[in-house]
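Please, structure for the following, as tokens.
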Amino acid sequence: VEFGTSLGIGTCLLRWLNPTARFVTVDNSEFTYLPGNRKVEIGHLAKYQGIDCEYILGESWEYRAEEVDLCFIDADHSYTSVFADSLCAWWNRSYECWAIVWHDYNLRHLGVLEAVHKFLLNKEYKLKSLSDSDTAWITNS
């Protein structure tokens, strides 16, 4: 599950990395913009590439599914939204093997940093990241 579709760049990457997975992407907008202020449908680049996934229009923190193996959080970067998305990902996670991934985990997006740190306060999972990446994650494996 991807929270935050926008142009669909992440959608493409996630699908290409796992072409057999059931894949859902959730966004609360029907449209976004290309450079030059050209209005396009959400997921424009992924749809142009023929990416097979289910596009959901709605608030990411309201999405409910059972047994989500991977939740990639890259929607609204505010503290409130990231925290709500993190809780939703936690509730939706698989019992066997799962990962929650946050994009834009950096000093330019303080809302993401603060929400992730608060979310993890009472969790026994250590946040992982690479030194040259803006992505952080937790997993049970």
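The two ends are 18 Å apart (CA to CA). The chain has a mean pLDDT of 96.
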